[in-house]
Structure formats: structure tokens, C-alpha cells
Amino acid sequence: MSHVTQIKRNELVFICDIETACLRMEAASLEMAQRQFKSYYGVGQCDFAIRVANANYEIGCFVNSEEGTVEMKCDLYSSGGLQNVLGNNLGLFTREIDMAKAERLADSERLRCYEEPSEEPGWRVQVIEF
Fold it and tell me: How confident is the model at residue 37 (pLDDT cuts 50, 70, 90)?
């Protein structure tokens, strides 16, 4: 059954981090589109949408203009194809958002960060001075 899922993050998501994540995922051909209405199940109005090549559905983004943060929602139903391109529960995309944020914060402190495999499932971000 199709339903809308909020893409939950432990920390606030900023537009600049989403834009960077879209650029980093060049192979998935992510494109941010300014639009008011989306046709996928359950979400009718959003501030902008993220189009994903080879997927029928898009990710709806809702901007909190006071904070400059974004709430993302999408339909993860299998026929929509988002998980086929962006990983289970959009894990590949959310990882890129997290890495974009880590790099932005590191740059502001004149640090450099990189990813490396972790003993636990997933990746770990290392931050070093330069």
C-alpha cells in the first residue's frame, strides 16, 4: 500500500545541504525543481521537489522559512522507484545530505572531513585539521 513517509533526520536539514547532496549524486540524476504541486500519492503541495531519474515519484520538500530548514516527504511504495535509485529508506541520499552538512561545518572551522568504512554498519565521518 502506498503512503507518504517523512524522511527523518537526527539534525536539521538545510537547503544548501540538499543542493550539495543532489550534485554529489550525479549518477542518480537528482534535480531540484521549483514547483507548488506534485502528483505522487498523499502530498499535494510543496515548496520544491527533487526529481530522481528512473523513478516515478519525487521527494517533496517543505521549507521552514524562519529557520531555513527543510522537511522532506516522499512515497516509498515500490512502484515509485525511489528506493531502487536512492537505497533502502533513501539511505544513499540521506548519507549524502549528512556528508554535505559535515563538509560545510568542517569548512567553517577550517577542517577537512572524509568518509571511511566503520566496524559498525555504515560509514563514519572523520574530521581532521589542515
Answer: very low
